[in-house]
Amino acid sequence: MVITVSARHIDISPALRAAAEEKFGRLRRFGADIERAEVHFVEERNPRIAQREVCEVSFETRGRRVRARAAAADTFAAIDLAVAKLEHQLHSMKTKVDARRHTRPSSEPALLADEG
């Protein structure tokens, strides 16, 4: 998985980049075949907004795109919130695929009671 980290109005420290790559890299355990992840940090410039640090994440899997946006007072807290949202989305996506795989309709037609 290729993880791209970018920012607007924020300097990305090596600790922030490492934390983002480590936390979003752990989401591979859902087996969603994530090909690429884009992490984008933004600082809101409006002084009336208390949760100024925003983390936007976009995953590209085979045939699907999973996105999350989380805001917090701290950048690392925003990462944690985005990870929680993505875990929920990937878990529901995985269980939906598994349920579809295990509930295959039978190919045999139903036997009628009149036949003997």
Polypeptide structure, described:
- It is a single chain.
- The radius of gyration is 21 Å and the shape is elongated.
- Strand 3 (53-60) and strand 4 (65-72) form a beta hairpin.
- Helix 1 runs parallel beside helix 2 (75-102).
- A four-stranded mixed beta sheet has the order 1-2-3-4, with helices on one face.
- With 116 residues, it is of the alpha+beta class.
- It starts with a strand and ends in a 14-residue tail after the last helix.
- The protein is built from two helices and four strands.
The biggest sheet, with number of strands, parallel, antiparallel or mixed sense and barrel status, is: 4 strands, mixed
Number of strands: 4
Approximate shape = elongated
- SSE string: EHEEEH
- CATH superfamily name? Ribosome hibernation promotion factor-like
User: Remind me, CATH topology?
Assistant: Double Stranded RNA Binding Domain
As residue ranges, the low-confidence spans are none
- The CATH architecture: 2-Layer Sandwich
In spatial order, strands of the major sheet run 1-2-3-4
The domain count comes to 1
Q: State the distance separating the first and last CA atoms.
A: 59 Å
The level-1 CATH class: Alpha Beta
Short description:
34% of the residues lie in helices and 27% in strands. By secondary structure, the chain is of the alpha+beta class.
List keywords for this structure.
alpha+beta; Double Stranded RNA Binding Domain; four-stranded mixed beta sheet; 34% helix
